[in-house]
Amino acid sequence: VPGRTQDLADALASRIRLRVADDVRRLLVVGSDDLSRWMSAGPAAFLGLHGRKGAIARDHDADLVVWDPEERFTVVAEMIHHRHKVTPYEGKNLYGKVRATFLRGEKVFHDGKFGRPMGRLLTRSYSAEQV
Length: 131
Fold this sequence. Notes:
The protein is of the alpha+beta class.
C-alpha cells in the first residue's frame, strides 16, 4: 500500500531511537563521540550519504539536534508526529529530550513545534568498493 511502508518505517525508526537513547543513557557511560558515530556518522555511511551527512564538517549539511539528556517527560500520543500513532512508549516516563532540530542550518523543530517542511529526497553516492 503506497505510503504505508514509509509510515511503518517512520514509526519503527522513532521507536528504535527512543529505545537506544534510553538504554544507552541507563546502561552505559558513553561519550559524545560514540553517540555521534552510532546515531550520525555510522547511519550516514551505511546509507551512502557520507560526505554530506553524519558529521559537523565543511561541505556537510548543517543537520544538528539540541538534546537535553536530563529532561524527564511522559510519552503521550500528542507527542507522536508521524501518521502511525501506536507506540509501546505511551505512558512511559523517559529522559533525554530533543529541544531543537536544524536541517541544513535552518531550525525545523523547537520545543515541540515544527517549522515549515524542508525535507527533500536524498540519493546515495556509490564508491567503486560499493559497486
